[in-house]
Amino acid sequence: MGTRVSYPYEIKLKAVEMKLSGMPTKQILEELNIRNSTQVETWVRWYKNGELERFKQPVGKQYSFGKGPDHLSAMQKLELENRFLKQQIEVLKKYEELERKWLDT
Question: Against a cut of 0.70, is the pTM above it?
Answer without folding.
Answer: no
